[in-house]
Amino acid sequence: MADETRSDATIEHLAAEGRTIEPPEEFARRATIGTEDTYRVMYRRSLEEPERFWREAAEQELDWIEPFDTVMSGGFEDLDYRWFDGGVLNVAANCLDRHLGTWRRNKAALIWESDDGHTKTYTYQQLHYEVSRFANVLKKKGVEKGDRVAIYLPMIPELPIAMLACARIGAIHSVVFGGFSSSALRERIQDCSAKMLITADEGIRGGRKVALKVAADEALFECPSVESCVVVQRGAGDVDMEPGRDTWWHQEISAPEVRKPCALEPMAAEDPLFILYTSGSTGKPKGVLHTTAGYLLYSALTFKTVMDYRDEDVYWCTADIGWVTGHSYIVYGPLAAGATSLMFEGVPTYPDPGRFWAVVEKYRVNIFYTAPTAIRALMRHGSGWPQRYDLSSIRLLGTVGEPINPEVWTWYHETIGRGEVPIVDTYWQTETGGFLITPFPGATPLKPGSASWPFFGVEPEVVREDGSRADPGEGGYLTVRRPWPGMLRGTWGDPHHKRMHEVYFERFPGRYFTGDGARVDADGDYWLLGRVDDVINVSGHRLGTAEIESALVSHEAVSEAAVVGFPHEVKGEGIHAYVILRDGYHASEDLASILSGHVRKVIGPIAKPDRIQFAQDLPKTRSGKIMRRILRKIAAGETETDAFGDLSTLAEPKVVKDLIAGRAAL
Ligand code: PRX
User: Looking at the DSSP assignment, which residues form a beta bridge with residue 326?
Assistant: First the structure.
């Protein structure tokens, strides 16, 4: 495989491979998928009789206004794959209205825990009322079916309310993570020509204020498509309001005329539901497009079967709704399934590192889903914190966002899961809509560090550079051989799938390429090995090295920059930037922090380099291509050039020695 830097992970995996943990009997007895055989039979059927499998699932899981005519059509040849054509439905109706005729009407749909420990609960009835009211506001503001609405909000209930209100009237939402900068917001608004922006005066995380409206104002300065901006008052409300453009959320929803029920927009199965921007290995972030029926079915079915949701459970996913995990597994999947979904405004370490466990104890959380980076951060504070709380309500744990190493898995299992609670290590992406490879907690013998099995309908294949299938145990590129209902339908602004083809389908013709490395062991279990492209995963956040490089180069002092990831104890990967200065600028600690601050301003705090190494030159091939493999090795602390692989194509061999010396001096 292209990238040898992952070999440490592979060694640890091999040690863990022999260890399996069977599903607890009591768990398996009540689980949706309760035996390995059940999984295998269903999986086989999902591949051999996909039409029947997905027809039954779609009829069972979703409420349709008009039934669909065809289950699936098209494929990876023309990229015009479609699901449930002819069918008409509405996502908000599936998440809310249909529960109102059942006992779930008065069940908690959403429980909100604020940064400072306050709580708000919305039953399905109440959430429906709020969504309907805000949907009327959207209409009043001139938002129509197909219009794009940008949402730049902190983790407050108005965020899912705004998303569902868009879905109710057929507007396409584009949620922008509240931690992104004004220029990142501007780029995303401009790319999809959003007609409206929904934001807040400020956000509050870990006791610290985030000036969202100030950032929004800066962005909107160059966003002529935005006609109106609705502002939620989360803080003191002390912000500038642009007359004719900005209005307060609370004033909008208290107008008498928005109280009447808002009619549902009947949506075709393939009508767009949302856009979510994500980083790739080249260029600017892409607006990944998800549509109505396939996405909703996939998020709901994966949620029910993998999270093994039962009606009495309180389910908590700690992600931010600004990322796909929050879309699929705080909002759409859980609400379609009639679940109680907890959303948390704060951070794991505020006011102290016991916060997660205090929240689990407070609401008696049954299913807890978080990221390896959060577990690692909390692990560092020791087992004392979780031990102070009653975590006995937890019956299922999950992780997502990056590979979890066996040692961290084991701590999670023993310290949070009492050594008996199953862990689902769910592998997926913004593009996949929902879980691609995952354990089924009642059926899968777990191996710490392995994401286990493909979900129903997913046909993965690990391949070599030349596209041939890798042998068991052999690392390769993870591809998928056929469409599944939840996968992206394209990227915004690319109607003929040109860019989609280049990014996901060109390298291995006829297959979707994930950008991840993986291997399958002799039992058929999948082990994810990390990205094999120029994407880095910092604390479970996906960043393109090219984006960080352009941010650096946009500073007047920088002539050239190359960014790579390096293994980081808490974040998974850290950001190491090699910077070549323009004439007249001199390397200094001050300049390094100015450049870090610049990246933070251009992209957001998550993209701030951990290290800046000033250099005279970069290792390049004779044709001028930067040899990133070498830069990754040096960033990881490797000093022996023997470990660098083939250096014969280097134009200037001396560069490597200089860079090693520079790294040692950091
Ligand atoms: O590299 C994989 C990693 O996160 C990438 C997708 O990032 P994003 O689109 O932001 O979505 C994150 C949440 C779904 C993947 O290409 N990744 C995600 N989950 C796992 C993972 N790597 C290993 N194991 C996982 N469970």
Answer: none
